User: What shape does this take?
Amino acid sequence: MYIPTFQDVIDAHERIRPYVHRTPVLTSTFLNELTGAELFFKCENFQKAAAFKVRGASNAVFGLSDEMAARGVATHSSGNHALSLAYAAGRRGIPCHVVMPRTAPQAKKDAVIGYGGKITECEPSTSSREEVFAQVQAQTGADFVHPYNDPRVIAGQGTCSRELVEQVEGLDAVVAPIGGGGMISGTCLSLSNIAPGVKIYAAEPEQADDAARSFRAGHIIADDAPVTVADGLKVPLKELTWHFVSNHVTDILTASEQEIIDAMRLTWARMKIVMEPSSAVPLATILKNKDIFAGKRVGVVITGGNVDLDSLPWMYKTEQGE
Amino acid sequence: MYIPTFQDVIDAHERIRPYVHRTPVLTSTFLNELTGAELFFKCENFQKAAAFKVRGASNAVFGLSDEMAARGVATHSSGNHALSLAYAAGRRGIPCHVVMPRTAPQAKKDAVIGYGGKITECEPSTSSREEVFAQVQAQTGADFVHPYNDPRVIAGQGTCSRELVEQVEGLDAVVAPIGGGGMISGTCLSLSNIAPGVKIYAAEPEQADDAARSFRAGHIIADDAPVTVADGLKVPLKELTWHFVSNHVTDILTASEQEIIDAMRLTWARMKIVMEPSSAVPLATILKNKDIFAGKRVGVVITGGNVDLDSLPWMYKTEQGE
Assistant: This one.
């Protein structure tokens, strides 16, 4: 297992610079007064493909040799990683193969196709997905880019917090959502090198708190199909992200479904930005742990902006909502 | 009738600078490709009180003598002007009286109160509003700040396009929504002085097209209670705004309700920003008049971000929607 270094982050930053935005950092007087902290929101919802994942995906795509690249890239994901990989592959002019369950929402399929991805459908089961994915790889020779358990991806995600510390002086802490742990691992990788005094908090839905339980147990615990409105955060840690989480994270804080939805709505209402439920988990945890963050300068990673505008979560009751 | 000069805009800018944001200008590769133009969105939805109207309101409030200011300011509005005036008065520490119909939505009343405004309710009729407003003024001596037909307000709004031409070089045109004409008048005032080659287009809902009809007729035409989703744009021109519109506007373009809603949804979906329906009218008119704007560098004023997140217009059919 190759563990990426900070030099990999520097190299990634240079490599992806033409294809990704240096996203802005926004502040809100209202949210500062509400939390008692100084919050600095790193707005990856304004990123290409509206997701931080385009950083890691671009690093993987543009790091390939011409020979490798010609065979394309492949992944199985129906979320922001698929969009991001399709975007990056499109910029390099190479194929991007995405294996998705035939039952995935048409909107998600359309989004991947909109970025130029080629979808191969599988049955909605792990065995079918693995079988179909193996076929696609065998037929195309495409390079598999895992959504997070890949050193190229983690080094790419690390460029986000590298920018954040360039943009905001004197941060005391950074809070970012945790699902599989790609963003948090990149954050750990960068901050442990360039700003080792900054505390790193991961924020997770209570209903998908496998990372928090792993953190306390000292080994990876994976849940089977957790249900949460923060649908980007359902996947488990893997060995590479576990390395960074277990070594560098200060704590993993959790929030309920209703707290996540409330924080999301509050951000839309007061900051006037569109972001997805996963991005609201950090603010939700800050609001319920004011004692930790009061008086501190806190970076908050808004990870993405891909949300179904026809079905916003404050307009329906969640299955397990309070 | 005092007609404000560009020196008034410069003075306003100096006066209000501590209380308002120099808002960012955003771009969208997707919308550029869709329209064939280069669009530069001036994001007043990120402004204090989430509305450009805080510029004019702040100029009025902070331009008062201490003696005048002590008696407060007053207006009758249930929209962004009331919020903005309450915000500005709050920053100066003086009272802001707002006369609103008792039938106005509680959310709008709460918003004004949230910014520190004092509401006096009237019956939902023009005669009651005028009577109650006269009483409030007589009792308090508060200074009346009209939402748009006031030289202080127009000079304040002019600071927006002054910033825009500082932020974007070589603009060919600016498109801004038109209701009473305060933003457009400020735009005319600034651009005719500092960038006289820039064409100024006003954008108006078809269903509240009194300004477009006035423009063609050569005199003010006022409609009685037009119905449009762009609820900030229902009010008629007045003599001061008519002066600027009739002298400096290149054309007034209109869009249907469905075109406005589609443009609003498109902006949310692709730019990841929350803005109100009125702010979508410019993009709607650009999309249906691509021949006018193709190949041009076009400033687009996003006027505000105050919208009911529980009831977004693409989720219901408008009364007169297509």
Observations:
- The beta strands of chain A are 25-26, 38-43, 73-76, 96-101, 118-122, 143-144, 173-177, 199-205, 251-255, 297-302.
- Residues 202 and 252 of chain A are 5 Å apart (CA to CA).
- Chain A touches chain B at residues 24, 26, 45-46, 50, 265, 268-269, 271-275, 305, 309-310, 312, 314-315 (CB under 8 Å).
- The longest strand of chain A covers residues 199-205.
